[in-house]
Write a structure and sequence with these properties.
elongated, 8 helices, single chain, alpha/beta, Flavin_MAO, 25% strand, 5-stranded parallel beta sheet, Amino_oxidase, Amine oxidase, FAD/NAD-bd_sf
């Protein structure tokens, strides 16, 4: 068992698995189709105005009172955190032609929404620093995984230059959305039909969603006694939050109520105009003074979304572990937030799935030694 474990996907699950394997002295390689690490974690900034800060276009928060694994990892990696700004009143937008209603937000002193200074990308970068940089291969798209009669596995990938590369291994951790596995990776011999059915049933978290961040010189809404938190039934944004860094600029981010097909048909420019118009209606004319605006439509990201993900997310009950039996048993292991029952869709779920996958690898190797 001298071949490195192959990890497919350099998102939070894949990098955490690589970090844990490296810590245990187990060789591994991480193969990533994108030209960057992070997966659905994406923190961005304005190259012309880096002083404005970094902003999350993927996951943003974690809840330390409930999520011990990410809380401990953040502490272990010495990352700075701060609480989500929630002071002041919230706005409820119920009618297109009427002004929003101001409401008092009931505080829950036990519930802390924490953000990472520098965005969630700081967690990704810190994890990447715990593993040798040469084990991560970007723009390496896994297309085939083959198991021969002797029990040896070959992972075949296409590189950015069109060349193909083969990686021998004894085990594979599939740390990417299950539906991407079903759509893009060929298995020889084929996976069991029941497993494929289970894979396809698991919607990709965030795949049908889009996120926008509007950045300002300062969080002016706080001066108006507003928290920046908005609930809207008329949109285009149905939820808005204060996305300001701990100091300096101000920012508001929102999730869309508008379905993927409507966003695509309208086009980005018109979508963003609607966003700014909504912010002006909610927060006043000062909301016109946008210094930067960032937009990520995950439904158009082919490394995240498949066609089935464009339907509304309903199958929450289908999240959880994927059981691999037969000849592929103990050879391939699924990780990723969709494979965790308790914290699916959360950063915590991604970490827990990685820890579970690595534990399986270690147990299998120990039994192999015996």
């Amino acid at each position: 068992m001298d071949n490195p474990v192959i990890i497919v996907g350099a998102g939070l699950s894949g990098l955490r698995a690589a970090s844990l394997l490296t810590e245990k002295g187990i060789k591994c390689r991480v193969l990533e189709a994108r030209d960057r690490i992070g997966g659905r974690v994406l923190s961005t900034s304005d190259l012309n105005r880096p002083d404005l800060g970094k902003f999350d276009l993927g996951p943003t928060w974690f809840w330390p009172q409930f999520e011990n694994h990410i809380a401990n990892l953040v502490k272990e990696l010495n990352l700075e955190t701060f609480e989500q700004y929630m002071k002041g009143e919230i706005l409820k937008e119920r009618f297109q032609i009427k002004p929003p209603e101001r409401c008092v937000l009931k505080e829950n002193s036990d519930e802390k929404w924490l953000r990472l200074t520098g965005g969630v990308q700081s967690l990704i970068d810190a994890l990447a620093d715990t593993i040798p940089s040469e084990i991560v291969e970007l723009e390496t798209r896994v297309e085939k995984i083959q198991l021969n009669e002797s029990g040896n596995i070959t992972v075949e990938a296409e590189l950015s230059n069109g060349m193909r590369k083969k990686f021998p291994t004894d085990a594979v951790i599939l740390a990417l959305p299950p539906r991407l596995v079903a759509k893009h990776i060929e298995f020889s011999p084929s996976l069991h039909p029941n497993l494929i059915t289970d894979i396809v049933k698991k919607p990709t978290w965030m795949a049908g969603q889009a996120k926008v961040v509007a950045v300002y010189d300062r969080p002016f809404w706080r001066e108006l006694g507003l928290s920046g938190y908005v609930l809207s039934v008329v949109g285009p944004l149905e939820e808005i939050y204060d996305a300001s860094p701990i100091k300096g600029s101000g920012a508001l981010f929102g999730f869309f109520g508008m379905p993927p097909e409507a966003r695509k048909k309208m086009g980005q420019d018109k979508v963003l105009k609607l966003v700014v118009d909504q912010l002006v209606k909610l927060f006043g004319s000062e909301a016109k003074n946008v210094k930067a605006i960032f937009y990520k439509d995950w439904s158009t990201d082919s490394e995240t979304t498949v066609e089935e993900d464009l339907s509304p997310l309903k199958n929450y009950q289908s999240y959880g572990p994927l059981s691999v039996e037969g000849m592929w048993g103990k050879k391939i292991i699924f990780a990723g937030t969709e494979t965790n029952s308790d914290y699916s869709g959360h950063l915590e779920g991604a970490l827990l799935s990685a820890e579970k996958a690595v534990a399986e690898i270690i147990n299998y190797r120990l039994k192999g030694v015996r």
